[in-house]
């Protein structure tokens, strides 16, 4: 029973929501505008730092979130100015490198006073004000098969806030998708020069898309660190690649794709790991190996998906027929 | 032929009955595409006002390269573009007559497309200045050029494959407030404009025989249909000057005829047309003025009927010794004399 609860609990876990948010941001970059952002983790880490550090120094919640968003916007601007006029591959390289720079600077010993160095920032330093805001009573609650703490760490309160955020971002994304603004972005994805010849300033639109997607990434970072400590190494390259996996799994350029992708990936992964833990005795495979093996099995499943359903779960097969 | 005649006769009847004046003037131009190139015998419904005016004005213009024209819309001076050691474009002076259909011809590699790119801001010349409708266009970005009323199409057709034909068209519409990031979130601010644009797009698609395809992905169109779509899209913003880069390349002969009619009807809508083309017959058929480029320079200009006789044009296409048999005795004699 606990296994089933654990597995299905991933369906609405805060981490799942964080990845869904990050993938929605990436969807605006890649699915709508065709920007190859290989450093979504950089936006997330910067958002997380912006939130946690201001919280540590006693700012209120609202201004902390605002500061996190501001940092991400400035970061997007800095990345965009030199690269958006060049080809897509340059943006990919620059975002990948910049995300690593953010992480390495964050974990360097000289920054220990501000970012806590490689140890990061402990949860009690930045989550208390968020937890105090909760209207729920103290203690734990059980809903159907799931029992979680009401307010502390991996809580019901965080789940509610995280999924409200996801719904809000998905709604914004849906509005944008069906608007003339979204149409211009999709046009840029298809052919930049054609859009330019029709009198739209392509660089401005690309910059807007980069910033908006980055803001969603920063929010994802905040949600990501709230149930745990802020550790720069937990928001490294792999997070970017998981986000890409989620986006392609769910289907790029769809509204619900990133959310569905995130749910499917984490439920699948937990299911594989938990099943192995129960069925295979630890003398044959140790728990460390199960962790790695879980990723291998999910990796193979994803490969099969990409081969047999390249447009993702929700994608439109017809769109794939015309490559760029 | 009978079917061809039907539409204009209807239009004529409407004309007689006395429909609203604006509509009756507007209608025939839009019907022109269904007519074939000429109105049915005995009928003279198409307005040829702009065509007549341009013909009249250009009749007195001397047939020589870089000549001044009575009412130019685009004036280029000393435009030079070099790629390394190669001079792709070197135009001393060039004018395009307003409301006219000007053809730009020349052998492959003559610099026609590069000249297009320079004029529309897609490429930057080494030196030179050019004015469009009195405005200086140096250092102007391509998007601003387009907003100024000079819209181009591409030799290698650019359509947004994974958008529908209608969306492609709507992207061509100017001043849609919904294209702002924040305003796009409030459909009330842009829905009315969207509806107007949609009506206009559908009218244009009808004219270009693409209306049945409007909900298909543009990527599913044939090469010729893409050319049509690109041209229709360029017309969404009512440009003052359209620059068509090989509008007929890869278009089948039947479709070609209707494209020609479209171009003629553009002139009567008050649009100036500049086009690059290799098909000399077509050039002779619709152009008011022909400019010939070779090796980056303008080597001849003139009336379509006479410009082909210009020795410079013959040289440009066939080489300076076109009438000499290179294996003949005359060549050998020349060599002997020199040695």
From TrEMBL, chain A:
Organism domain of life: Bacteria
Protein name: Branched-chain amino acid ABC transporter permease
Annotated Gene Ontology cellular component terms: plasma membrane
GO MF, one annotated term: branched-chain amino acid transmembrane transporter activity
Cellular localization per UniProt: Cell membrane
Transmembrane intervals: 7-28, 34-54, 61-81, 156-177, 209-226, 246-269, 290-308
Keyword Lipid biosynthesis attached: no
KW Glycoprotein (keyword) present: no
UniProtKB/TrEMBL annotation, chain B:
Gene Ontology CC terms, in alphabetical order: plasma membrane
SUPFAM superfamilies registered for this protein in UniProt: P-loop containing nucleoside triphosphate hydrolases (SSF52540)
InterPro entries: AAA+_ATPase, ABC_AA/LPS_Transport, ABC_transporter-like_ATP-bd, ABC_transporter-like_CS, BCA_ABC_TP_C, P-loop_NTPase
Stretches assigned to the ABC transporter domain: 74-320
Keywords: ATP-binding, Nucleotide-binding, Transport
Top-level taxon in the UniProt lineage: Bacteria
Pfam family of the protein (one): BCA_ABC_TP_C
Listed Gene3D superfamilies: P-loop containing nucleotide triphosphate hydrolases
Name this polypeptide is given: Branched-chain amino acid ABC transporter ATP-binding protein
Taxonomic lineage from the root: Bacteria, Bacillati, Actinomycetota, Actinomycetes, Bifidobacteriales
GO molecular function, one term: ATP hydrolysis activity
Keyword ATP-binding belongs to the record: yes
SMART domains according to UniProt: AAA
Organism: Bifidobacterium italicum
């Amino acid at each position: 029973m606990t296994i089933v609860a654990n597995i299905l609990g991933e369906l609405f876990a805060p981490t799942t929501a964080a990845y869904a948010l990050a993938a929605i941001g990436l969807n605006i970059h890649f699915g709508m505008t065709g920007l190859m952002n290989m450093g979504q983790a950089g936006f997330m880490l910067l958002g997380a730092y912006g939130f946690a550090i201001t919280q540590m120094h006693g700012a209120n919640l609202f201004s902390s979130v605002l500061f996190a968003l501001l940092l991400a916007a400035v970061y997007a601007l800095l990345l965009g100015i030199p690269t958006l006029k060049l080809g897509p591959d340059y943006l990919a390289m620059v975002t990948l490198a910049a995300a690593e720079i953010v992480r390495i600077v964050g974990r360097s010993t000289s920054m220990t006073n501000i970012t806590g160095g490689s140890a990061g920032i402990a949860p009690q330093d930045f989550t208390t004000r968020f937890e105090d805001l909760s209207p729920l009573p103290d203690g734990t609650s059980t809903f159907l098969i799931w029992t979680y703490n009401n307010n502390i760490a991996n809580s019901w309160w965080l789940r509610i806030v995280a999924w409200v955020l996801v719904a809000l971002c998905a709604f914004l994304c849906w509005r944008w998708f069906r608007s003339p603004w979204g149409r211009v972005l999709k046009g840029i994805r298809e052919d930049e020069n054609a859009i330019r010849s029709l009198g739209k300033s392509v660089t401005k639109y690309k910059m807007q898309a980069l910033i908006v997607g980055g803001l969603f990434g920063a929010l994802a970072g905040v949600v990501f660190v709230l149930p745990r400590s802020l550790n720069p190494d937990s928001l490294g390259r792999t997070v970017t690649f998981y986000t890409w996996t989620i986006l392609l799994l769910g289907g790029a350029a769809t509204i619900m794709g990133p959310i569905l992708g995130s749910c499917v990936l984490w439920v699948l992964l937990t299911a594989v790991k938990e099943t192995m833990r129960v069925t295979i005795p630890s003398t044959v495979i140790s728990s460390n190996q199960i962790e790695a093996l879980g990723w291998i099995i999910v990796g193979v499943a994803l490969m099969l998906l990409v081969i047999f359903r390249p447009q993702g779960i929700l994608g439109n097969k017809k769109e794939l027929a015309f490559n760029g | 032929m009978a079917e061809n005649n039907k539409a204009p006769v209807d239009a004529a009847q409407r004309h007689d009955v006395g429909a609203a004046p604006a509509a009756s003037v507007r209608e025939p131009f839009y019907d022109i595409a269904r007519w074939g190139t000429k109105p049915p015998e005995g009928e003279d419904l198409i307005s040829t006002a702009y065509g007549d005016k341009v013909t009249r004005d250009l009749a007195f213009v001397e047939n020589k390269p870089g000549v001044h024209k009575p009412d130019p819309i685009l004036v280029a001076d000393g435009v030079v573009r070099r790629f390394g050691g190669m001079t792709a474009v070197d135009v001393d002076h060039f004018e395009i007559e307003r409301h006219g259909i000007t053809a730009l011809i020349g052998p492959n590699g003559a610099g026609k497309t590069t000249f297009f790119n320079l004029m529309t801001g897609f490429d930057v010349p080494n030196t030179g200045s050019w004015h469009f409708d009195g405005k200086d266009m140096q250092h102007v970005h391509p998007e601003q050029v387009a907003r100024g009323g000079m819209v181009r199409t591409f030799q290698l057709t650019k359509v947004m494959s994974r958008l529908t034909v209608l969306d492609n068209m709507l992207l061509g519409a100017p001043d849609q407030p919904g294209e702002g990031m924040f305003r796009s979130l409030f459909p009330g601010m842009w829905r009315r404009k969207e509806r107007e644009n949609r009506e206009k797009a559908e009218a244009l698609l009808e004219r270009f025989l693409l209306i049945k395809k409007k909900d298909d992905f543009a990527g599913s169109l044939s090469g010729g249909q893409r050319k049509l779509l690109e041209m229709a899209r360029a017309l969404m913003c009512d440009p003052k000057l359209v620059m068509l880069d090989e509008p007929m390349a890869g278009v089948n002969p039947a479709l070609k005829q209707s494209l020609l009619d479209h171009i003629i009807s553009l002139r009567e809508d008050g649009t100036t047309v500049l086009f690059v083309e290799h098909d000399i017959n077509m050039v002779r058929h619709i152009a008011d003025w022909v400019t010939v480029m070779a090796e980056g320079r303008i080597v001849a200009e003139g009336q379509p009927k006479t410009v082909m006789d210009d020795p410079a044009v013959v040289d440009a296409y066939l080489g300076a010794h076109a009438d000499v048999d290179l294996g003949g005795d005359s060549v050998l004699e020349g060599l002997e004399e020199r040695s």
